[in-house]
Write a structure and sequence with these properties.
Layout lengths: L16 H4 L5 H8 L5 E5 L5 H14 L8 E5 L2 H13 L6 E4 H16 L6 E2 L4 H10 L6 H16 L7 H8 L7 H18 L1 E2 L1 H14 L1 H10 L2 E4 L7 H11 L5 E5 L14 H4 L1 H4 L4 E5 L1 E2 L4 H12 L4 H4 L5 E2 L8 E5 L2 H17 L7 E5 L5 H10 L4 E3 L9 H16 L12 H9 L14 H22 L5 H14 L8 E5 L8 E6 L15 H15 L2 E10 L38 E2 L21 E2 L6 E2 L2 H6 L11 H18 L9 H10 L4 H5 L5 H16 L16
Helix pairs in contact: 2-3, 5-10, 6-9, 10-11, 10-12, 15-23, 17-18, 19-22, 20-21, 25-26
Length: 738
């Protein structure tokens, strides 16, 4: 009836305005036809909200009801704006502006600044951390990296909530905000930061919104100019608007009512940035005659995933919970969610990597799998585990696809080949478009078979492979397309930041996963103190953590795994408890006073690696023995100390020369395998080997970070180096080196 999970990359542009409406369900169609007056779309996760609003804009443009240049579609991330532009282009609605709040405001500010203020717009400060550090130093405070990040975020919150430095302490008290420092001290840092910006004639991203608001408020002529340009507004993710963004939107719209907002209060997860769902929930109060449409047909997730998501929200409290949407899955049945309990975090990461490897072996593309965690610091252990399992991965938040060096190089090569046409000998024998692209990219590192392992070499190959797949899809959709046509398509996609898919398991925080989806999702680290996070004290803060977990669950299309570890480190005390949010939902757990009880399917796997849905009694892993310092005997809990098998402060007897040889050997191995150095051994493991100087496999395998797998792979070389012997490619000890 509507959006398939995997749509064609190059759909045919609808021939008529009415054809734009084809395939929409009744509620989506209602959104598309509501082209006048205030419109509020309450859209649950996976219900096709982006589809609905892009088809609404495209239908209005294609039917001649909306002029493309007068439409401004606003969202919150460059990726979302790029996706919207890509969809509008595919629907034949070119010329519509789809931007973030900051991008739209900056464009207006640059245009109107000379007229409103005079001179050139002050330079935009890309990163404010360094200036915040200087402001703190002037206040005789030295902040470490984490404190600096927290103070910077606090200044950003104050600015988007339109709180000036003098009012900051009162605002913290009123909102019960957990400030990272004494509010009076933060107020002083904030004030000094603002003064430093004025002294150096720079502005930050929040100033872009503040200054645009100021100009539109003070200059009615400029405000009318903007309103004459943009007459129809669409705001996506409306639950995430801050008071400052809402003020800017009000000034853009003026006294008109051609405004369409789309959002879901149950996905409000950015209150720490000033976002509030109140504007969405109060929309009908502000606009009594508004058309309100609810989208609840979930086309993304199976009934089993939707069942758990609905159950999670059934326990929620507060204003957002009162407006929750009960999703109805439109997909066939799938596997039950899998709940897994592990003894410690490294074991959880290893178990997750094994299950991912099994999914990939069963045919699930690595690019359709994600591991989601609460905080970014949790990623390292999963990077290591996936590397050990030979599974490629990519970190969410890395540079944009079209800004990668290898993609820029590939674009240059393809552009040159397109210009040369039949005169390029490289294309001899390459009859079709895909073959031509493969021939060109083979000079840049693409091969028909991927390199082993992960790391920079694999990342580069994956980028080029994504371009090859794009060419294949492009040729299938447009038979007879030439290399010149493909280059033009790539240029348009780069301008819209409409990137092809890069294959590799995604590692991402729950916050950065918003707006994305995968066939298989692993939610990890689901323990009290991490979910909800320890500093979530108030009821509203805890409810936001619940909504964050809801966002994580609803990213999954088919496979969903939820796991937790009872201790942080091997041998540690099993004192952790699984998140309260699963009470009454996971099998065997006590209820949590649910509103409309929800039973969880499946079973709990105690980390055995056996699928929980099989309901087979799990075999518990034998608990690992405590790791003790080999110098003072103290029980170790820190992962780094456990690798060294000693306290950081205890004296080291490391053989420096041996460490140097191991370090050089590791670099050579990593280059050979096309993996980052740490995928061979981490530096702490190298230090531990250089301190222990093992002479047997038994002595080597017990060093943390080695294990049986790496013993079989690297043990012979490592033991040879420890014995002072030469290995292939390394000079004998004492031999002349040139």
């Amino acid at each position: 009836m509507t959006a398939a999970t995997h749509s064609t990359l190059f759909p045919q542009v609808p021939e008529t305005p009415d054809a734009v409406l084809d395939g929409l369900d009744p509620e989506q169609r209602e959104v598309a036809l509501a082209l006048h007056g205030p419109v509020c779309v309450l859209a649950g996760a996976g219900t096709g909200k982006t589809r609905a609003i892009t088809h609404r804009i495209a239908y209005g443009v294609r039917a001649g009801i909306l002029q493309p240049a007068t439409v401004l579609a606003v969202t919150f991330t460059n990726r979302a704006a790029g996706e919207m532009r890509g969809r509008l282009r595919q629907l034949g609605a070119t010329g519509v502006q789809a931007r973030t709040f900051h991008s739209a405001a900056l464009r207006q500010l640059q245009y109107f600044w000379p007229k409103a203020v005079g001179g050139e717009l002050p330079r935009l400060l890309e990163r404010k951390v360094q200036l915040v550090a200087e402001a703190a130093a002037r206040c005789e405070l030295r902040l470490d990296r984490n404190e600096l990040r927290d103070v910077t975020s606090e200044i950003e919150w104050a600015k988007v909530t339109q709180t000036v430095p003098a009012d900051y302490p009162a605002a913290v008290a009123k909102t019960q905000r957990d400030a990272p420092r004494d509010p009076a001290v933060l107020s002083q840092i904030y004030s000094t930061y603002e003064q430093l910006k004025r002294d150096r004639s720079v502005i930050d991203f929040e100033d872009v919104l503040l200054l645009t608001v100021g100009i539109l408020q003070d200059r009615s002529d400029i405000a009318e100019h903007v309103r004459g340009q943009y007459q129809h507004f669409v705001v996506d993710e409306y639950q995430d608007v801050s008071p400052l963004q809402q003020r800017l939107l009000d000034l853009w719209v003026g006294d008109r009512d051609d405004l369409c907002v789309v959002g879901d209060a149950s996905q409000t997860i950015y209150s720490f940035t000033g976002a509030t769902p109140d504007h969405l929930l109060n929309f009908r109060t502000r606009h009594p005659g508004a058309t309100v449409v609810k989208l609840v047909r979930d086309y993304r997730s199976t009934p089993q995933v939707v069942h758990l998501a609905n159950g999670l929200l059934s326990q929620a409290h507060g204003k957002a919970a009162d407006h929750r949407l009960e999703l109805v899955s439109q997909r066939d049945k799938g596997p039950e969610p899998v709940y897994t309990e592990y003894s410690d975090e490294p074991t959880e990461a290893e178990g997750t990597a094994r299950r991912i490897r099994d999914l990939v072996a069963a045919g699930v593309p690595a690019g359709e799998i994600a591991v989601l965690y609460r905080v970014n610091s949790q990623s390292e252990v999963y990077e290591q585990a996936l590397a050990d399992a030979g599974v490629p991965y990519q970190l969410r938040g890395a540079e944009r696809f079209f800004e990668r060096a290898e993609v820029r190089e590939a674009g240059t090569a393809l552009r040159g080949a397109a210009r040369a046409g039949g005169n390029d000998s490289l294309l001899d024998g390459a009859e079709d478009l895909a073959s031509q692209v493969r021939a060109v990219l083979s000079t840049k590192g693409w091969t028909s078979r991927p390199p082993a392992g992960s790391g920079a070499v694999r990342d580069r190959w994956e980028s080029l492979a994504a371009l090859v797949r794009l060419a294949e899809d492009f040729e299938t959709a447009k038979p007879g397309a030439t290399l010149t046509d493909l280059v033009r398509e790539l240029d348009e996609r780069a301008a819209a930041q409409h990137a092809p898919t890069v294959q590799g398991v995604t590692l991402a925080s729950l916050h950065s996963a918003k707006g994305l989806e995968w066939d298989a999702v692993f939610l990890v680290g689901l323990t009290e103190g991490m979910m909800p996070i320890a500093y979530a004290k108030t009821d509203e803060q805890v409810e936001e953590e619940r909504r964050l977990m809801y966002v994580g669950i609803t990213r999954a299309r088919v496979h969903l795994s939820l796991s937790w570890a009872l201790s942080r480190s091997p041998g540690g005390r099993a004192s952790r408890r699984p998140t309260r949010f699963l009470n009454g939902l996971r099998p065997g757990s006590a209820g949590a006073g649910t509103r409309g009880g929800v039973g969880g399917g499946g079973g709990i796997d105690r980390g055995s690696g056996r699928a929980a849905v099989e309901r087979t009694p799990a075999v518990e892993r034998k608990p690992r023995s405590p790791v003790r310092c080999r110098v003072c005997g103290r029980t170790l809990t820190d992962a780094g100390e456990m690798k060294l098998m000693r306290c950081e402060e205890c004296p080291s007897d490391m053989d420096e020369a041996l460490y140097g040889r191991l370090y050089d050997w590791r670099a050579a191995q990593a280059a050979l395998l096309g993996q980052p150095d740490f995928c061979v051994f981490t530096e702490k493991t190298l230090m531990a080997i250089a301190e222990a100087v093992p002479s047997t496999e038994g002595e080597l395998v017990v060093i943390a970070g080695v294990g049986n797998r790496k013993l079989s792979r690297f043990g012979t070389d490592v033991l040879a180096i420890c014995a002072g012997e030469a290995i292939d490619g390394e000079p004998e000890e004492g031999a002349d080196e040139t």
